[in-house]
Inverse folding.
């Protein structure tokens, strides 16, 4: 593990819980001694420190640092001693190159392969709901990733949600919708709760109801495979309360604003690349 922040931990602990990765086989490198001490204290048996040398010699690496630290991290890769990952580690035939799985937003496979020529590379785009094992992860493959290794990587991310294999050009749109989308939905939840408070509900109750309404709506859309327009029509009665609210949303351009928000996030992802 190169970096062990919230997302990296959200990916690691389910793997350990499922028995796919034994804790004794994990080596983690973090940015500060304070972070290393805190993680070691909270997770007895976890080998964590600030020197990435040992971690880089692992057969499989998860790269989960801030994108702006990528060049610095690449410079820390030892030029010797990289081990053959072997079939036990990757679920594939032996290969001289370790496997590097990056979860860095906007960092392309081409850049990863240029910075880490001694590794086979995978680009993964997980989203925040992975923290509660309800996530979505998009995967794009670098050169030389065999089908068995692809299946193994997919199994890792399946522990925290649904996994999709996508052509890399589609990852910008995937990221904009699934990784930035939770923030957009949270903004909607907050605004709906504020409206309920304005209508007379206590704040705590308003937040609870907004969250449950969004969760229930998502479950209904997904469970019955409804188009969003179908669900809207199901609850919109002639001259009723819902259509009065929808008129306000449409008059203020909420639909267009959300479309533009996703497009802006996708464009920013391309800029970061």
């Amino acid at each position: 593990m190169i970096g062990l922040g919230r997302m990296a931990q959200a990916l690691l602990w389910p793997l350990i819980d499922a028995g796919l990765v034994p804790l004794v086989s994990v080596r983690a490198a973090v940015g500060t001694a304070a972070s290393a001490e805190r993680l070691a204290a909270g997770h007895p048996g976890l080998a964590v420190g600030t020197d990435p040398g040992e971690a880089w010699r692992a057969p499989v690496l998860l790269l989960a640092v801030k994108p702006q630290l990528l060049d610095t991290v690449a410079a820390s890769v030892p030029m010797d001693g990289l081990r053959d990952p072997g079939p036990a580690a990757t679920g594939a035939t032996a290969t001289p190159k370790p496997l590097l799985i990056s979860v860095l937003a906007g960092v392309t496979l081409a850049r990863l392969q240029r910075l880490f020529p001694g590794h086979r590379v995978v680009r993964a785009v997980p989203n925040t709901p992975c923290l509660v094992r309800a996530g979505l992860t998009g995967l794009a493959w670098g050169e030389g990733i065999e089908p068995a290794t692809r299946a193994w990587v997919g199994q890792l991310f399946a522990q925290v949600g649904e996994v999709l294999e996508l052509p890399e050009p589609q990852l910008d749109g995937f990221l904009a919708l699934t990784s930035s989308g939770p923030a957009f939905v949270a903004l909607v939840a907050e605004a709906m709760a504020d409206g309920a408070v304005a209508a007379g509900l206590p704040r705590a109750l308003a937040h609870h109801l907004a969250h449950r309404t969004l969760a229930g709506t998502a479950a209904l859309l997904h469970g019955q495979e409804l188009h969003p327009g179908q669900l809207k029509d199901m609850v919109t009665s002639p001259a009723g309360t819902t259509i009065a609210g929808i008129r306000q949303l449409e008059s203020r351009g909420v639909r267009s604003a959300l479309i533009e928000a996703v497009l802006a996030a996708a464009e920013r992802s391309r800029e970061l690349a």
Notes: The longest strand covers residues 120-126. The mean pLDDT is 90. DSSP finds 13 helices and seven strands in the chain.
